[in-house]
Amino acid sequence: MAEPIHHRPQQPLTPLLTARLPLLLDFHAACRALCSAVLEHLATALGIPADWFASRHDPDGGPSGSVLRMLYYPGARGPPADDDDDEARGDIRAGAHSDFGSITCLFQLPGQPGLEILTPEGEWAAVAVDPDPLAPSASSPPSESPSPSELSAAAAPSPSSTTATTAAATAPRGRRNLPILVNIGDLLEEWTGGLLKSTRHRVVFPSPAPSPSSSHPGEASGSSSSDRYSLAYFCHPLDDAALEPVPSRLVQEHIASSSRTEAATTTATTTTAKRAVITAKDHLARRLAETYTIPTASP
Ligand SMILES: O=C(O)CCC(=O)C(=O)O
Ligand SMILES: [Fe+2]
Fold it and tell me: Does the predicted model carry a pTM greater than 0.90?
């Protein structure tokens, strides 16, 4: 679902979603608010005005590539193959990739593990679905729901963070607290000259299945044959936002030090071309083309 304009969807929705439109729009708005708050914390950490990123993502300023995806992965695996490679064996639900935009907020069901990130050492590591299972549930003594800015205060990674970060969010009363995973995307990595890192990740079939006693009310089954549902809000800057250099000393120092390393291995032309200012819309179009264009065979 693309970014609603003035709280109205911009595309036809199925009857099921139309019946829940107010909930969907509120959820969309909450995701937006959370992203703004996270972007403000990132800007503060980089020593630039707090609204530097957030103002370039403000939906009142025009269209953007932001999108909310409702993801469903069927329980059945692909055909078994006698192969060491996870992808060839059909153990993968979503292949290795990084997200294209600025940040992604991912909502997973506590009983459904499977998300993995690629560590700087090149190993796949499972992301805890519920990093703090002992956190009080919303059915225990009621507490005030945190505001989006309180949520993202816990979520904002330090500038040198290389992996996804989680934040606890309070679910409606009677439901368990659900963590929100905040992932940095390719655009923010490029915009900060590589200081903020876009995390490569994938979704695998979980194994082994958890014992029934380990599940909580309202949780989905995490067995490897069960379906998986998740929600991902991909936050992008306004289409017209120019990806001009971020006026941060930390970013500039990082670019200078990586350019010194790069200069030893690449030509000046490549380095300059890489730093040309493009808009967020051009960036998205370029990433989509890189991902989905099938190279034509040379004659
Ligand atoms: O479903 C998930 O847990 C992750 C989905 C994802 O990484 C994506 O859609 O980009
Ligand atoms: Fe992703």
Answer: no
